Amino acid sequence: MSVNKNRSTLVNLNQLVLNIPIRRKLTEQDNRDKFEWDQWQSTTKAINNVEVPAKEKHIRNLIIGTFRLDGSRLFWSMVIRLQIDSHPITCWKFCYVIHRLLKDGHRHVIHDCIILTPYFDQLCKYWSGVQHGYGLLSYRYCHLLVSKLKFHVRNPKFTGNLTIDENNDVRRLLNDNYSLYSQLCLELLEYMEEILNLVQVIFSSLDQSRTNSMTATGQCRLNPLIACVQDSSLLYDYIVKVLFKLHEGLAGDTLQSHRVKLSDHFRRLKRFYSQTSTLQYFRNLIKVPILPENPPNFNIKDDMKNYTSPVPIVTTSTTDDILIDTSDDNKVALKSTVSEDSMFNRSKEISDLEQRVMQYDAMLKQNRSETDDLHRTIAAKDAELLAEKNHRSQLEEQLRQQLDNRQRIDEIQAMDKNSNEKFNKLLETYNKLREEHVVVLRREGENKKQLTDLNQQHEQLKDEYKKKEEEFNQNYEKLNNEIVQLRQTNNELQDRIQILTTERNDYQSMTISAKERLQQIENAKQNVEERFKQLESDKTRLNQDKSTFEQKLNQTEGARQDLFYKNREHEENLIDLIHDKEILELKIIDLEETIREWAQRYLDTTDKQKLIQANHEKLVNNLKRQYKHTILTYCINQMHDGIERTKNLELFNGKHSSDYLQTKIQLANGSVKKMLDLWKKQNDSDESE
Q1: N or C, which end of the chain is more exposed by having fewer CB within 10 Å?
Q2: Using CA of residue 235, residue 240, residue 246, residue 251, what is the dihedral sign?
Q3: What distances in angstroms separate CA 560 from CA 100, 402, 570, 573, one per listed residue?
Q4: CA atoms within 13 A on the CB side of 645
Q5: Percent of the chain, pLDDT > 90?
Q6: Which molecular function term from Gene Ontology is one that the record holds (predicted)?
Q7: Contacts of 489 (CB under 8 A, 6+ apart)
Q8: How many of the other CB atoms lie within 10 Å of CB of 150?
């Protein structure tokens, strides 16, 4: 895809940017020029087609610029000069910068970007045809930004970073209007859906490209996930609180669709947090919150007390974010910039400290709830242990008393022995797998030691290092896969051990109830035989009905699949036609522009041709006049020459030769004839013209 096909996009962007108001200007010329140059440098370094993540200092500089000018008019005037749709990586980094400006920039940035919503729609359509790489990533990110802007249009009380007030209590936002709360819940779920779709595309692109999170290419793709973690945690908190609010005033059946969507989002969000927390790139940048095993039960009102809000903790960097330039000679401008930046930094530090206090309170509540849960579980386990001991003593006494049922007890004990043997075999296999797991971990440690040794010999054996590094990565992936498989088998074995222990307890309990059950079985055996005969007859009749019903079901299923495939083909053809229509419209616009250019060129060339023709006619007329004048002068000179020669009596008398006189007369006569011939030719040419 080329940029030249989208001239209309740039024109529309110019028109849209002109609608953004200028809220504040810098007064001094020197200060304004330096500020604009710094903003331009940060913009070009943060938004380019190089596959590296944008540096935080450049994005922070752009955020400060929005606070100094109370908006993003200057930023968008610079974006016009960038070719956003020329490269998918450029569009990807542009979307990330816009996301950060919406979250952390001035509050007017949201209003400015709402004006530019058609431009984001056009970018989304532009990249919709690319189904791989950064093209697909840019499409999903543009779709997320459009959803975010529409959400803020419908809900202006939410800020760019999705906060409401100091407590973020969404339950007091709309009083008790449950219809508005239901609409808000649906919009929050849609917003969460777009974030999870973007996250899914990012992780799938990492799996396809096989990139590492510590490489520049991997970090370029993973960089927006920090903002996604922050937004998704707040959205999940709002959705849970709104659903608890709705369950207080509405019936549970009407909110079934909301609960189903939340359970799906909870599962995807939990997987997203677990994947993010395992990546080494995020360990020093953000602390990802941990979600519980299951979503809250909204049918139980007291479950709200056990709910804790997920709070991510972002580590703030201190060395790379110094943005004040002391090279300016103008001290007044420097003081103003320092004071404004310091005010912004103080407000930012205050908000960060308040956020940390809230996070620590949430963590404290979470720790208290976890300790209470642990105390409850310990007490429950103690009670279960005492009950189990009492139950075991009762079983032993009953087994001693039931000597008459010795044979049956022996059979049950044989079954118990078999279960014990199976249990011991499973324990042996579990121990073997555990030893293999330890061996694999030791191998992993040895491989890490080999990697450090290879790093020390990097300068001398560079080529050999690359080969061994590739081999190490392959072995490391294999070991990780083996570890994952061993963990899965370990979990399965633990589940089997638990199942066998429960079966063993069931066998022991069966010894108590075996006598009573045998008596009941003997009494019910006759009834069962009679009932079995009836069921056999019913079974044959039901099988016949089932076969006929399955035939009808297969026929209807085949017809439904045919209709589904036809409908899907129609939809795909319609999408292709719409895409072709857009391409043809763009080509028509380009052709109209080229036709206008060629028409203008044709008019210019015709005017120039007329001027050249007029100049040519003037030049020809001048040449004709000069030619006539030269002919006349030549003829006159020849005549004068003949006359002068005839007047020279001394020469005439000196020669006394008739031959000489005859030659002179012939020369004069020839000159006269030449003059007459030239004069006739000139007259003939004039008459023909």
Answers
A1: C
A2: positive
A3: 47, 64, 15, 20
A4: 16
A5: 21
A6: clathrin light chain binding
A7: 433
A8: 15
In tens, the pLDDT along 235-259 reads: 999 999 999 888 888 877 888 888 8
E strand residue ranges, 378-448: none
Averaged pLDDT for residues 561-570 = 78
Helix (H, G, I), strand (E, B) or coil at 287: strand
Rounded to the nearest 10 degrees, what angle do helices 406-456 and 462-647 cross at? 40
Whether 192 shows a pLDDT value over 90: the answer reads yes
Encoding tokens for residue 393? Answer: 């003593």
> Could you give the count of Cα atoms lying within 13 Å of 588 in the half-sphere of its Cβ?
6
Rounded to an integer, what distance in angstroms lies between the CA atom of residue 216 and that of residue 495? 42
What pLDDT, on a 0 to 100 scale, did the predictor assign at position 332? 40
Element housing 314 (H / E)? strand 313-314
User: What are the pLDDT digits (tens) for 373-408?
Assistant: 666 666 666 666 666 767 766 776 776 666 656 666
Residue with more model confidence, 117 or 437: 117
| DSSP-assigned letters across all residues of 481-550 | HHHHHHHHHHHHHHHHHHHHHHHHHHHHHHHHHHHHHHHHHHHHHHHHHHHHHHHHHHHHHHHHHHHHHH
Maximum Cα–Cα distance for the chain, whole Å?
Answer: 189
Chain-centre distance of CA 77, in angstroms? 24
291 dihedral zone (left: phi>0; alpha: psi -120 to 50; beta): beta
- Map residue 70 onto helix, strand or coil: coil
The closest alpha carbon to 324, from 337, 333, 311, 343, belongs to: 337
User: Rounded CA gap, 64 and 135, in Å?
Assistant: 30
Can you give the pLDDT at residue 606? 81
With beta carbons less than 8 A apart as the criterion, state whether 631 and 678 touch.
yes
Q: Is 315 left (phi over 0), alpha (psi -120 to 50) or beta?
A: beta
Pairing of strands 313-314, 286-287: antiparallel
DSSP-assigned letter for residue 253: G
Assigned token pair, 20: 């953004």
Helix (H) or strand (E) holding 295: none
Q: What is residue 331's three-state secondary structure?
A: helix
**CB distance 126 to 13 below 8 Å:** no
| Sign of the CA dihedral running 336, 342, 348, 354 | negative
**Amino acid present at 560:** R
For residue 134, give both structure tokens: 């950064």
Residue 509 has, within 13 A of its CA and on its CB side, a CA count of 9
